[in-house]
Amino acid sequence: MSLERFISDAISPWMKREGPESDIVLSSRVRLARNLQQFVFPIAADKESAHEVISSISSFINEEKDVPEAENLEMLVMEELKPIEKRVLVEKHLISPNLAEQAKYGAVLMNQDESVSIMLNEEDHIRIQCLAPGFQLEEVLHKANVIDDFIERNADYAFDEKRGYLTSCPTNVGTGLRASVMMHLPALVLTKKMSRIIPAINQLGLAVRGIYGEGTEAQGNIFQISNQMTLGKSEEDIMEDLAGVVMQVIQQERAARKQLQDGLKLQLEDKLYRSLGTLENSRIIQSKEAAKCLSDVRLGIDLEILPGISKTILNELMILTQPGFLQQYAGEVLTPDERDIRRATLIRERIKLENR
Q1: 216 pLDDT exceeds 60?
Q2: pTM reported for the whole predicted model
Q3: 28 within 8 A of 134, measured Cβ to Cβ
């Protein structure tokens, strides 16, 4: 495997599989933050210390053959990557924006189907990330814990009996667990209920963010719901609280979709077909408009209004049309206007290929 393998395909292999509640829940993710006791935290580390962390982890990470979740991991070092290559990895959710932009001496270990990525020297020494399609929080937590236990058998974590796992940011102290679910909620947005749901979710100690997490806006009606509290709660409590809220949001989205079909069927169909027409015929399209139209078309597929188009193609286009991927395929840095032209061309050609 090589860097080209990770950045050439828009869709990670795990994304091609269907998961529970996949008409609304795109993916589930768990991330565990850990630090090594004998090293200064990354925010204060120099180059030598950061490289020692990478060397320490890589010395044993692929040695254990009884832990399939940690087998055949390939390392990419941030210093060796071009800015566009790092941006592509962010767009595929394989690394965080912080690792790409701020972690000068960072690295990432990834498995074959890209469902596991272990970021090194990001905000913390180790951030174990596991992903799965659909609503599978328990499954990704189990996988992350297996990898976590394996690493802990070979390394000494920074841990306090009262405070739990010690991290660079106080908001991660305790379990070090961040769990999130990526959800497609177009009907709640169209019925203007999302503006009331977000504050209610925030009051429950959960956060609602955009597709790339903290500091990003929701595009294409895709929202990420995650826990905010890591201290004072067990992993089980965190996961139970998040899962309960996600199930309620799923039910409300389904009710909103039924409301649209029952009361505004013709208007809904007109909107969805217009968005499909825009994607099929545009010569210039900005990323926000593309995301909105792709969201409409996905809703049309889920409601069986727009036949003949695969959801996999839409997942692919949502990533392919991001700035990093467009420039990666072009082989050069593009201006925003040039990206808008290439984005429109790529979408048209991909839909035509699917129709054939």
Answers
A1: no
A2: 0.89
A3: yes
